[in-house]
Amino acid sequence: MTSKTTDDRGPLYLLRFLFPGAAPLFAAPQRLLLMFHRRLLLQRSLRTTTGTGTLLHRPLAALLPLLPSRVPGRANYMASSTARSPVAATGSGSGGRNSAPPPPSSPLPSATSTSKISSRRTAQIARHFSTSSSPTGPVSKQKPDMASNYTVRKVAAPNTLEHRVYIEKDGQPVSPFHDIPLYANQEQTILNMVVEIPRWTNAKLEISKEELLNPIKQDIKKGKLRYVRNCFPHKGYLWNYGAFPQTWEDPNTVHPETKAKGDNDPLDVCEIGELVGYPGQIKQVKVLGVMALLDEEETDWKVIVIDVNDPLASKLNDVEDVERHLPGLLRATNEWFRIYKIPDGKPENQFAFTGECKNKDYALDVVRECAEAWERLVTGKTPAGGVSTTNVTVQHSPSRVSPDQLPPLPAHEELPAEKIDASIDKWFFISGASA
What we know:
Blueprint: H1 2-18, H2 23-27, H3 30-45, H4 52-63, H5 74-84, H6 86-90, H7 111-130, E1 150-155, E2 164-169, E3 172-174, E4 191-197, E5 205-207, E6 216-218, E7 220-221, E8 224-225, E9 230-231, E10 240-243, E11 261-262, E12 268-271, E13 282-295, E14 298-307, H8 319-325, H9 329-339, E15 350-351, H10 360-378, E16 427-428
Parallel strand pairs: 9-16, 11-14, 12-14
Antiparallel strand pairs: 1-2, 2-3, 4-10, 4-13, 5-6, 7-8, 10-12, 13-14, 13-15
């Protein structure tokens, strides 16, 4: 009785062991599996010299040694299988009812090699069933490894004219403008972002368009380092601020809806996650929306994104989700861009679309347009106009060079930031700004 009970359950335990991640898939066809096994048992009892029962039984028998000893019925099933096998019954050539000549060497691999192959396949299948590959699943579960290869090389102290942050991949200097891929996965749902300015800081750092390899440096106005002012109730930048690599807002093209040319910079990005970044950090983000700032009669897109590793990433998939889970942030973002230049004596900025934050689909169209503009720039189809297009990875670019053609960079330095003027910490109260 015990042998029969465990024998009937054997294939189910076998399949569940080999495909542990697919247990839900075995629930529906369970009846079919039982029918298959009953047929197997029937063929055992009706086995003849033709060996028809062996056709079904031997492949399963070859896999049985892979079962761990803890699987119920393993020992009984193997003993029963060996006793009933026509090959085992014939011995090494003695006569008998099933004394057919031994079959030629089986094409099946040995138990050892089968175990190795099965282990690899089992691991692959387990990963497949345990990880969501659906585009609607939580993006935060996807772990692109792009960022792990990038490091920064700091030159001189922050808050100085000489300060630079170079980006390196596997120890090789690269351009954050041209060499870091825009997309971090094949589906183009996750993008790489270069952090220029960490949240709550004031130094206006940006990718240098003109310098070789486009390091991050602090912007200069009339020979002085630029800082954004604190416009009450805000402190510095509200988000991790940066840019998308391999994008460019073409100053030669008037956008049909904003009616203004591009600002000649990589596409600006506001990352609204809770973790504060650092200059030169490469974050993987997903796009949520976009605002169209009109800055001194130029189109200056501001793409709203979330770090895929942020706790809220799975809940934020479009612009309406931002208002639902982070109420007030989009309004504060609009206000900040509108007033942040007023303390420096400049007029209030304006927005296209009456300040509306466009949705994810619109934002992705803007990203693609700016990626196409960058493609024309780096391939020489659009005049560079002072923009350095030197790169080490873009194969179809006439500006590509080999790493050994680059001049040596200064050594990495971890220096404390220079003190800044106390006036940078002053709060400005702007009439009309919400408190």
